[in-house]
Specification:
With 217 residues, this protein is α+β, with helices and mostly antiparallel strands. It folds into 2 domains: 145 residues, Beta Polymerase, domain 2, CATH 3.30.460; 72 residues, no CATH class. The chain is 49% helix and 14% strand. β4 and β5 form a beta hairpin. The protein starts with 15 loop residues before the first helix and ends with a helix.
């Protein structure tokens, strides 16, 4: 299921020094740095945060780079160690946290926070297969989550800003998405999402998006 546990506390709070460093490098550059690292090791991945939203929906301010990867179980510990040799951890027990919660919290050399979600076979394997290339202004090409899967992630997360993002994606794509695919996975995830019904959230967002597209003017 699309789920990215995150630590609470200092690892997600930008320090003054970190903010200054982030002003000197953009998130596209940070995403390209992470994508280049993963690509050089043949790791399937997709960027699932702000850059994907900019492509499929409406831009929204983001503080970090979110990426999901798929690594074989027997290679997982070695992968985590490899990442921690290349990128600085954001918490002291980043390795143990990653193996327990399946999310690795690191930062780039310029201080941009990176959340690397450790996907599992099943949905995320399919989602990575549907990932699409995005060329950045620098000419670097990264892989981002497809629009249907971005909608699925956001419906599962279910925060108010995620609902807004879902509507923005539906409107910008003019409903030209595989709605059956979205419904199938949201129906599957429904029993394990305790806070809300992701399928109902989607259908309500779809109704609002359809009304917005049909409105005169």
């Amino acid at each position: 299921m699309p789920h990215r546990p995150r630590c609470s506390g200092p690892c997600d709070e930008p320090s003054a020094g970190g903010a200054a460093r982030r002003r000197s490098v953009g998130f596209p550059e940070a995403a390209a740095e992470v994508a280049g690292f993963l690509g050089s090791r043949g790791i399937p991945y997709a960027i699932i945060g702000g850059l994907a939203l900019q492509r499929w929906g409406e831009p929204r301010l983001t503080r970090d780079v979110d990426v999901v990867v798929l690594v074989d179980a027997e290679a997982l510990q070695a992968f985590v160690d490899d990442v921690l040799e290349r990128f600085a951890p954001r918490i002291p027990d980043a390795r143990a946290f990653a193996l327990r919660h399946r999310v690795l919290l690191v930062r780039t050399g310029e201080g941009v926070p990176v959340d690397i979600s450790l996907g599992i076979p099943g949905y995320e394997e399919e989602a990575l297969g549907r990932a699409q290339p995005l060329e950045l202004p620098s000419g670097a090409v990264i892989r981002i989550l497809g629009p249907e899967d971005l909608v699925i992630h956001k419906c599962v997360a279910g925060r108010p800003r995620d609902v807004e993002d879902v509507e923005a994606i539906l409107i910008r794509q003019r409903l030209r998405l595989d709605l059956d695919l979205i419904r199938r996975w949201l129906r599957a995830f429904g029993p394990v999402v305790e806070t809300h019904d992701p399928l109902t959230l989607f259908e309500e967002a779809l109704d609002r998006a359809r009304a917005a597209l049909e409105a005169p003017g």
